Amino acid sequence: MLKLYSLFIILICGIASAQPPEMKLSEGGFEPIDVSIPATKPEKLVSVTKTWALERQRRKIDQDKGYDFTNVTDNTITITGFKKNAFYYTNLGEQFEHRIQYTMKFTFYENRYTLTFTVTQIYTDNNTPVQSSLSDYFKSDGTLKEGYTNLDISLETTVNAIVQSHYEALMNFR
């Protein structure tokens, strides 16, 4: 029984460590993350990343427009995409949902990659551009302004789901 319990603990630790770090929202946006992966040629990782984005587009998982690929080299790619219902906030009991345009800049190395996730434009639920950026929702001390309850949690959940989906594609392409 002790051996079975030990095996279970080892498996749980292995699964828990096999995920990218969570992206955290601050007044400046999201900090870049470094993600460890098995050794793979960067060119292959760029190719798998393109395939991942095209598959999400084909299945209409998180956006209503296609993805754009820019700055593509042997070890880098930048993807621009849209996400409906990317975040919401509650103000005076009313919930407001927003769509975002974002970029994901990947730089691949032999056994890791760096990901920079940037929200480039915020839209209302009816696709009207909002004249504010993420920093406008925060006070100077880095906390959310009053009236934007759940904005940080909902956007972090959305972004981390996208990041996790990409990570799983890289881990499962073999």
Question: Could you characterize what this model shows?
Answer:
The chain is an alpha+beta fold. The chain has helices spanning 2-17, 42-58, 151-172, and strands at 25-26, 29-30, 33-36, 68-70, 76-91, 94-108, 112-124. It has a 5-stranded antiparallel sheet. The protein has a two-stranded antiparallel sheet with strand order 1-2. The longest helix has 22 residues, at 151-172. It starts with a helix and ends with a helix. Mean pLDDT is 88; it is low at 11-17. Keywords: Signal.
Strand content: 25-35%
Low-pLDDT windows of residues = 11-17
How many E strands? 7
Tally of alpha and pi helices: 3
Give the terminus-to-terminus CA distance.
Answer: 34 Å
- Adjacency order of strands in the biggest sheet: 3-7-6-5-4
Q: Judging from the principal axes of the Cα atoms, what is the shape?
A: globular
In brief, what are we looking at here?
By secondary structure, the protein is of the alpha+beta class.
Descriptors for this entry?
alpha+beta, 3 helices, globular, 32% helix, two-stranded antiparallel sheet, 5-stranded antiparallel sheet, single chain, 174 residues, Alpha-D-Glucose-1,6-Bisphosphate, Chain A, domain 4, 7 strands
